[in-house]
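A reminder from the course coordinator: this example appears on the midterm review sheet, so study it carefully.

Given structure:
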């Protein structure tokens, strides 16, 4: 991580809102655990976010600020501060010490102070940084806008959004302490900061543009009439209290040493121990040799001659990963939309069959394609693998193809490796075993009432998603097989679980 900078270029200090990052990472990757059942999703996500900051921002100096346990000085001012916040999720609690251990293993300076929030530490560090140091605060918290100056900016890495003085001025019509006047009026329901009844952020901005400060506004309270005046008078103390609660303390008693914030090489030995314990296999491998981003090669097949050539190559392979795309999660109701195949480390294929949106391209004839696919998918010399392949077995059998022999299912293997885990879906397994976050279904189909069925998704959007699924299964299965050997659970998997796949599929079809 060490870097060489031009002497003429100002040094850059990145300050990460660690507590905010912890929650963001937790909700971004839920259900990931190691084989002992210890939750690891927040740790994995935090690690990736940390590396992204270092790679994208290239700071010379880096510090992570954390909330300390227990109440803060704000709770002394207002006992109901953040009283509406939910309890920390049980799966997150044990991950926090590991996240702090991770930061330490990267040799990154972290700071927390009893009675203060991460916001106050960030404000203090940013304010104490020398004038010749450019400060970038990594956060998505709007409260931090009060800290923005010519040399202090905010960066929300989740939205790739930079907030500088111009952005703050445009949004709030003021900067620095002026923002506190706005927040004093509008409050914040998420932190249970009351503000003034009936005044939202937009109205608060207009009022502060006109009056400048709360004090000046209340001096001219006669300008207001009716309900607005009544609320302002009734909530005068709340407005002043809210402004105080929003104010970031920039004088937290901390040891400030820029030298301790220098980017240095991580403690590889400690990282290896930690990644090994957490079973971050790809991250562990990356420590041994530089890791490259997982490239997902795919091709969309519209031509029968091309399909024949691909299936001929598949017939010469030892393993064939298969995945179906359909119109329903219920296999007996599902109509086939497309089939994905992967049989080596360098290719994956999506065969669209019945995408039906306006302007959809011409696709292969369903009956002819089924006839061609039947060869390799029923060939006893080619071992079939999949993720929840029971579903694909049922769907394809309705179309006249009985997948055989089935030798590996990544979802079933995940249950055998870690029965207590809730993260047996392909997204979680790919993150765990390949360090790769796949395209999600909602990325291509949307969410809620407007969600498309797969046949309504444009082929150019469907193909990378569908082909990736088959490819990831092909890449994962040898890694998962090795894990079962290590845990001595492969006999259970191959002798009990795999034979049950077909039996259960046949029972579902009756």
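Designed residues:
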């Amino acid at each position: 991580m060490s870097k060489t900078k031009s002497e003429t270029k100002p040094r850059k200090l990145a300050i990460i809102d660690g507590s905010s990052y912890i929650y963001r990472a937790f909700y971004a990757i839920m259900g990931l655990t190691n084989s002992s059942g210890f939750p690891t999703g927040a740790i994995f996500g935090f690690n990736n976010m940390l590396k992204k900051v270092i790679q994208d921002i290239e700071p010379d100096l880096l510090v992570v600020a954390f909330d300390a346990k227990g109440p803060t000085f704000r709770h002394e001012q207002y006992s109901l501060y953040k009283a509406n916040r939910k309890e920390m999720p049980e799966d997150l609690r044990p991950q926090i010490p590991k996240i702090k251990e991770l930061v330490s293993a990267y040799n990154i300076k972290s700071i927390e102070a009893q009675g203060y929030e991460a916001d106050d530490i960030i404000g203090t560090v940013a304010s104490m940084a020398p004038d010749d140091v450019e400060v970038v605060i990594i956060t998505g918290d709007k409260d931090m806008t009060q800290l923005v100056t010519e040399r202090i900016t905010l960066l929300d890495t989740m939205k790739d959004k930079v907030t500088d003085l111009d952005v703050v001025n445009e949004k709030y019509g003021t900067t620095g302490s002026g923002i506190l006047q706005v927040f004093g009026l509008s409050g914040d329901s998420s932190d249970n900061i009351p503000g003034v009844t009936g005044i939202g952020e937009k109205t608060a901005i207009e009022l502060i543009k006109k009056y400048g400060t709360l004090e000046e506004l209340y001096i001219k309270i006669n300008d207001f009439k009716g309900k607005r005046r009544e609320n302002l008078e009734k909530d005068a103390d709340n407005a002043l209290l809210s402004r105080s609660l929003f104010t970031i303390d920039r004088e937290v008693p901390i040891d400030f040493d820029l030298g301790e914030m220098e980017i240095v090489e991580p403690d590889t030995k400690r990282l290896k121990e930690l990644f090994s314990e957490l079973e971050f296999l790809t991250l562990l491998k990356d420590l041994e040799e530089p890791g490259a981003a997982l490239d997902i090669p795919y091709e969309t097949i519209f031509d029968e001659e091309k399909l024949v050539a691909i299936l001929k190559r598949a017939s010469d392979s030892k393993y064939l990963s298969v995945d179906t795309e359909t119109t329903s999660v219920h296999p007996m109701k599902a109509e086939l939309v497309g089939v994905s195949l992967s049989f080596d480390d360098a290719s994956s294929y999506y065969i669209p069959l019945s995408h039906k949106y306006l302007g959809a391209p011409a696709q292969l004839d369903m009956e002819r394609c089924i006839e061609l696919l039947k060869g390799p998918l029923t060939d006893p010399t080619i071992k079939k693998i999949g993720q929840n392949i029971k579903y694909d077995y049922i769907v394809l059998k309705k179309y006249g193809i009985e997948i055989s022999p089935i030798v590996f299912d990544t979802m079933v293997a995940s249950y055998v490796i870690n029965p207590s885990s809730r993260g047996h879906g392909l997204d979680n397994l790919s993150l765990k075993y390949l360090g790769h976050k796949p395209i999600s279904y909602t990325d291509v189909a949307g969410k809620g009432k407007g969600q498309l069925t797969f046949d309504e998704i444009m082929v150019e959007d469907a193909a990378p998603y569908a082909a990736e699924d088959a490819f990831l299964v092909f890449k994962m299965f040898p890694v998962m097989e090795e894990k079962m050997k290590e845990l001595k659970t492969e006999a259970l998997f191959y002798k009990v679980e795999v034979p049950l796949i077909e039996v259960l599929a046949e029972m579902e079809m009756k």
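Residues 459-487 form the longest helix (29 residues). Residues 1-7 have pLDDT under 50 and may be disordered.
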